[in-house]
Design brief:
This protein is α/β, with parallel strands linked by helices. 39% of the residues lie in helices and 15% in strands. The chain binds zinc ion.
Length: 233
């Protein structure tokens, strides 16, 4: 039965090959997600190995962190937007895992990005998680975890408010709402540890800041950040 299934899968791949996740036009390179052109052209930040990089500059002074870096630059209409769209809305959690592996390897090869003790993904609201079936940031974190061989904890931080209801609020109450949208459920596993907080996109940084502030209330906690795409402002 297993052989028949594998044969059927191979046939499907032959007639309906998956397209490159970045351009959605060409065939990807063997065992990869990107075609050759995209692989060469993707806007990698190449800043994981650079302390005081652009992302760190953007969040500096808002909360205490050790290191922070993004894998890509994210701009409306660029190839990274295609990748994130596939990851979030096309039921392809594996993309997150593969991107996490890429990030993990870059940390391993870096002298400037210390290997953290554990990983925490930014959680989705329960309703959204059920709707999507997975949390893209958790998938990204799992990829990093597999390369660095460190644990990932999904149930330490919880999203409590639904951001949708924000539209009717003024700026101040919106900010308050974001700051209170995360709750720490149990911090025994994270006290005194170096936590790598992971998320898909960083735009203003308000989400990350809210989660980071809550985590940093834990005793002697150190924090670093790993982001898939840093949005251009
Ligand atoms: Zn491509």
């Amino acid at each position: 039965m297993k052989i028949i299934l594998e044969y059927a899968e191979a046939l499907i791949e032959l007639f309906f090959p998956r397209l490159c996740i970045a351009c959605l036009v060409k065939n990807p390179l063997r065992d990869q997600m990107y075609c050759l052109q995209c692989k060469l052209e993707l806007p990698y930040t190449d800043q994981i190995d650079i302390p005081d990089n652009e992302l760190e500059f953007r969040i500096f002074g808002r909360f205490k962190f050790e290191r922070a870096a993004a894998l890509f630059r994210f701009r409306k209409g660029n190839k990274v937007q295609n990748i994130i769209h596939q990851l979030k809305y096309k039921n392809r959690p594996h993309i997150g895992f593969e991107l996490g592996k890429e990030f993990g390897k870059k940390i391993l090869n870096s002298k400037e990005f210390p290997i953290p003790d554990l990983i925490i993904p930014i959680p989705l609201h329960k309703k959204k998680q059920i709707q999507r079936g997975y949390n893209q940031s958790h998938e990204f974190g799992k990829g990093i975890s597999s390369v660095l061989n460190i644990p990932i904890y999904e149930n330490i931080i919880k999203k409590v408010s639904d951001n949708k209801s924000q539209t009717k609020m003024n700026r101040i109450s919106r900010l308050e709402n974001v700051m209170n949208s995360y709750q720490i459920k149990d911090d025994t596993k994270i006290k005194g540890k170096h936590v790598l907080l992971v998320d898909d996109i960083l735009t203003t940084g308000a989400t990350i800041e809210a989660a980071a502030q809550k985590l940093l209330k834990s005793q002697d906690l150190k924090l670093s950040l790993a982001i898939i795409g840093m949005a251009e402002l």
